[in-house]
């Protein structure tokens, strides 16, 4: 399965009288064992069944399903005895494995969703708008994990409210499954870096991996007349177009569903790329904004850059040093990849993250620990 196009999994699925299709945005295969469950099932038994791989199709009231999920989460998150990891990288890998285990277990509590995106349970909230926004029209009844459904509901609230982006003086509205710019510090870097000389005569740019389109919008607001924004996630492209329209810059931003550089595009004054900051295998569509398998996007951006720039043009790489703190990449690796691509560093702007998680003090979480010293940088790159 490709990392950048990890498909959702759907499969015919029959338990009750109503036929339904299994649906998982993570690509989780349908469970092999499934039982009907209601509030006669105790949390400890539910948790044990889920750990053993038995899925529970909820038939009781919706609030009871929520209570059960919380009780299962408390059990899943109980600290487990383990040896001391021998490096930050090992601590981080363990942390990811543990998170994946918790997600697998908690994903075993399932709820039925109708074709009109109604949860077919007593006292269920109306999630039709959120369901339609995330899944689009459904042709058949679905069985989804309650955990996924809560993600759909939360994402919709975010989409409606939007995320304030000070550099734009406006809100960006992330769609379900699209990387959201909650950490505005990197957006500020793109807003204040000096534009390359080539942009004066050719005000064009590429934004590789555009996500919500936030950086493309900043560039358009800075006077670039044509920004070509690419992403492999179709939801990101729709989201970027939506935000460009809301911000009144739709006439300056064009989207293309390609990997990295748009094929056949003319050379440009500026290429901006904010790749996922951690090398690693993405486990879900949202992970594609966080994990870059074998640094593929980072290296793809660097390796293609020199041939895409006009004379006097620049590439801007947005990258935090989180991977360095976690022992997943070294500074020397990065600089070596830059020079191997025939590039030189012409400048760098640094900033400290201001997202609340960056200052969190949960030292048992290796990510929080590493974030305490994290610096986010905009690397200005030009052909050597
Ligand atoms: C860290 S997010 C950045 C999103 C946005 N540019 C921002 O700064 O908020 C990385 C984005 O790259 C996209 N992506 C991952 N691999 C890609 C590839 N090979 N080509 C284009 N986009 C890719 C992901 O879908 C995601 O939207």
Tell me what you see in this structure.
This protein is an alpha/beta fold. The chain is built from 13 helices and 17 strands. The strands form four sheets. A seven-stranded mixed beta sheet has the order 11-10-9-12-15-17-16, with helices on both faces. A hairpin with a 4-residue loop joins strand 1 and strand 2. Helix 1 packs across helix 2, helix 2 runs antiparallel to helix 3 and helix 4 packs across helix 5. Bound molecules: S-adenosylmethionine. S-adenosylmethionine binds next to helix 8.
Keywords:
single chain, 384 residues, alpha/beta, Rossmann fold, 2 domains, 7-stranded mixed β-sheet, 6-stranded mixed β-sheet, 13 helices, 17 strands, globular, binds S-adenosylmethionine
Shape: globular
Helix and strand sequence: EEEHEHHEHEHEEHHEHEHEEEEHEHHEHE
Helix tally?
A: 13
What is the helical fraction, as a range of percent? 25-40%
Number of strands: 17
Residue runs with pLDDT of under 50 for 5 or more positions: 1-7
CATH level 4 superfamily of the largest domain: Vaccinia Virus protein VP39
Second-tier CATH architecture of the largest domain: 3-Layer(aba) Sandwich
CATH class of the largest domain: Alpha Beta
Kindly report the spatial arrangement of strands forming the biggest sheet. Answer: 11-10-9-12-15-17-16
State the secondary-structure class: alpha/beta
Number of domains: 2
Biggest β-sheet strands, sense, barrel: 7 strands, mixed
Beginning-to-end CA distance, first to last residue: 37 Å
Average of the residue pLDDT scores: 91
Strand content: 15-25%
Attached small molecules: S-adenosylmethionine
Computed over alpha carbons, the radius of gyration is: 22 Å
CATH fold naming of the largest domain: Rossmann fold
């Amino acid at each position: 399965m490709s990392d950048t196009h990890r498909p959702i999994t759907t499969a015919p699925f029959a338990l009750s009288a109503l036929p339904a299709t299994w649906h998982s945005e993570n690509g989780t295969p349908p469970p092999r064992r499934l039982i009907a469950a209601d509030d006669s099932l105790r949390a400890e038994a539910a948790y044990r069944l889920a750990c053993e791989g038995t899925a529970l199709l909820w038939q009781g009231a919706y609030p009871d399903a929520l209570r059960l999920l919380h009780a299962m989460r408390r059990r899943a998150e109980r600290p487990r005895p383990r040896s001391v990891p021998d490096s930050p990288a090992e601590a981080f890998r363990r942390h990811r494995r543990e998170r994946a285990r918790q997600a697998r277990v908690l994903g075993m509590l399932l709820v039925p969703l109708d074709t009109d995106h109604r949860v077919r349970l007593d006292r269920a909230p109306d999630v039709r708008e959120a369901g339609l926004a995330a899944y689009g029209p459904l042709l058949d009844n679905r069985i989804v994990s309650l955990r996924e459904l809560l993600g759909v509901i939360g994402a919709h609230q975010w989409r409606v409210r939007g995320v304030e982006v000070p550099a734009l003086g406006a809100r960006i509205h992330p769609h379900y499954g699209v990387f959201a710019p909650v950490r505005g510090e990197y957006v500020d870097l793109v807003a204040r870096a000096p534009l390359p000389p080539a942009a004066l005569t050719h005000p064009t740019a590429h934004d590789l991996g555009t996500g919500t389109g936030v950086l493309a919008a900043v560039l358009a607001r800075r006077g670039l007349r044509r920004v070509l924004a690419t992403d492999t996630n179709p939801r990101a492209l729709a989201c970027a177009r939506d935000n460009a329209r809301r911000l009144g810059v739709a006439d300056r931003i064009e989207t293309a569903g390609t990997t990295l550089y748009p094929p056949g595009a003319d050379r440009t004054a500026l290429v901006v790329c904010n790749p996922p900051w951690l090398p690693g295998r993405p486990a879900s569509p949202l992970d594609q904004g966080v994990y870059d398998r074998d640094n593929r996007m980072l290296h793809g951006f660097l390796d293609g850059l020199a041939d895409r720039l006009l004379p006097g043009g620049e590439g801007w790489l947005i990258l935090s040093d989180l991977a360095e703190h976690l022992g997943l990449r070294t500074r020397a690796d990065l600089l070596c990849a830059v020079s191997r691509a025939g590039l030189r560093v012409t400048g760098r702007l640094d900033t400290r993250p201001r997202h609340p998680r960056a200052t969190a003090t949960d030292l048992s979480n290796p990510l929080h620990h590493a974030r305490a010293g994290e610096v986010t940088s905009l690397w200005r790159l030009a052909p050597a």
